[in-house]
Design goal:
- The chain contains 12 helices and 7 strands.
- It is α+β, with helices and mostly antiparallel strands.
- It has 2 domains: 225 residues; 156 residues, Heat Shock Protein 90 (2-Layer Sandwich).
- It starts with 21 loop residues before the first helix and ends in a 10-residue tail after the last helix.
């Protein structure tokens, strides 16, 4: 390709006053190849996923470099320069074939190009060394090189099914035309005598071959551009199709999600109706028990103090049950959280009284850092949290082990610790304790529902508080409640999940 030249001089492509000599054609060819290389570099920079374009750019760079070196070498070049410059141009053709095969996703046959390059160097080196003026062996070698490499490119185009058929056949026709021109030049060089003088158009056969090679570069470049455009259009259509499918899938998912939300909304409404029904059914027996306790209190004024204490305990328990029903099972949940300023000492007194009325207060040891320390919280909610935690500590501890409840201030928060010497929590299950209906593996033999700690966490969420469970070094568990002293923390959004 562009290698069948002899030293350029006064020969011209056309006779007459205006001449187009070899040097001018070499300049035009170099400029065309260089501009095409720059164009492919910009195209590759714009679409990095088409990495095959790097080979096309490298091919055109090699051709431009080889022609530039021809321009600079003068009229009497060294033998190694002739071989090197023409080999660089042949390397450009190999890179074009490699890039085209990669772009079309076809077998590359790189070994063919490597073998041809080695043969090119060997034949040209021998020819230049034996007779530098004899161009015929070099022309035939170049023709063979061109025909083989372009046949490989034609084969890749014939096998391809990604490009439009018309574009593939036009490209094949351009390659076949250049192969035919190369073969024709080789035949002319073989059949015509060295002193043959033809019509002006063939006055310099080398210039004629170089001119049609330049035209081939332009036509081949245009075909490659159309191929890249077709590839990008196909990729865009594929992405649009994929995007359309994704939109349809998203619409389907949205429809299913809406259906699930409607189903969940219906279930929540059914749950709320069931809760109201259960609360109504609870009220009737609880009202009967309360009336019975009141009657016993009225008619049993002479009863023993212990009996009166038990009756007071029953009344307190009934009042707490009615409060829970009214606030968490009947009223709107937005109104269930009612924070107010209260003293921690008063809260602990209520909790202590609850357990004393149930004859379990003797095992409880309360430690309060500051009796007058105040906190903004819902008294019933926070009392329920502490009662649940202390009840768990009593339930999972031996009957003779005390339960320590320590209250202290830490920065802007109040810390309440409920420490026991019970069975503890398996280390592997610590992060699961507090989930709804989950119970530790070592607590199966003890009656429970797995809702106490869950309810405590949910109630603390109203206050922006937290509950942490830790195993003690010497056995047992410590439940650590942390609630902010600030009123702003108490104005948290109401948790969405039902507490009961």
């Amino acid at each position: 390709m562009f290698a069948n030249e002899k030293p350029y001089g006064g020969e011209s492509l056309c006779s007459g006053g205006e001449m187009l000599d070899l040097k001018t054609l070499l300049v035009v060819t170099m400029a065309v190849a260089a501009l095409q290389a720059v164009a492919w570099i910009f195209v590759w920079r714009a679409w990095r996923h088409l990495y095959e374009l790097k080979f096309l750019a490298a091919g055109f760079i090699a051709i431009a470099l080889g022609v530039l070196l021809m321009l600079l070498r003068g009229h009497n070049p060294a033998a190694w320069a002739i071989v090197l410059h023409n080999t660089i141009i042949k390397l450009g053709l190999v890179l074009l074939a490699e890039g085209l095969a990669r772009f079309l996703g076809q077998p590359r046959h790189s070994w063919i190009g490597a073998c041809l390059l080695v043969s090119q160097v060997a034949i040209w080196s021998i020819s230049v060394a034996v007779d530098p003026t004899d161009l015929e062996p070099r022309i035939h070698a170049s023709t063979f090189f061109t025909v083989v490499m372009m046949s490989v490119m034609c084969l890749a185009l014939l096998r391809d099914r990604t490009q439009p058929p018309l574009l593939r056949w036009i490209t094949i026709a351009i390659l076949v035309e250049y192969m035919s021109a190369s073969v024709l030049q080789s035949i002319l060089e073989f059949r015509l005598p060295a002193d043959f003088e033809s019509a002006p158009i063939l006055a310099d056969r080398n210039a004629w071959y170089l001119l049609q090679g330049t035209l081939f570069l332009i036509a081949f470049f245009a075909c490659l551009l159309f191929m890249v455009s077709s590839r990008l259009s196909a990729d865009l259509r594929e992405k649009n199709t994929a995007l359309s499918r994704e939109v349809e899938e998203r619409k389907s998912l949205e429809a299913r999600l809406n259906a699930s939300l409607d189903a969940e909304r219906m279930l929540r409404e059914e749950q709320a109706d069931f809760t109201r029904m259960v609360s109504h059914e609870f009220r009737t027996p609880l009202a009967i028990i309360r009336n019975a306790v009141d009657m016993i209190g009225l008619t049993g004024n002479q009863s023993q103090p212990a009996t009166q204490e038990r009756l007071s305990g029953i009344r307190e328990a009934l009042n707490r049950l009615f409060s829970v029903i009214n606030r968490f099972m009947v009223e709107d949940r937005e109104n269930s959280f009612q924070p107010e300023y209260m003293e921690i000492g008063s809260l602990m007194g209520d909790v202590r009284l609850h357990f004393e009325m149930t004859a379990r207060g003797d095992r409880l040891h309360f430690t309060l850092q500051d009796q007058a320390m105040s906190i903004c919280a819902d008294p019933d909610m926070l009392a329920t949290v502490l009662i649940n935690l202390i009840d768990n500590a009593l339930k999972y501890s031996p009957g003779n082990e005390p339960i320590h409840i320590v209250t202290r201030q830490q920065g802007t928060a109040v810390i309440i610790e409920v420490r026991d010497r019970g069975i503890g929590i398996p280390r592997a299950e610590l992060d699961k304790i507090g989930r709804r209906f989950f119970r530790a593996s070592n607590a199966k033999a003890i009656t429970g529902t797995g809702l106490g700690l869950y309810s405590a966490r949910r109630l603390l969420a109203y206050h922006g508080g937290t509950l942490q469970l830790d195993n003690n070094v010497h056995g047992g568990t410590t439940a650590v409640v942390r609630v902010s002293l600030s009123r702003t923390q108490s104005n948290q959004a109401v948790p969405e999940e039902t507490l009961v």
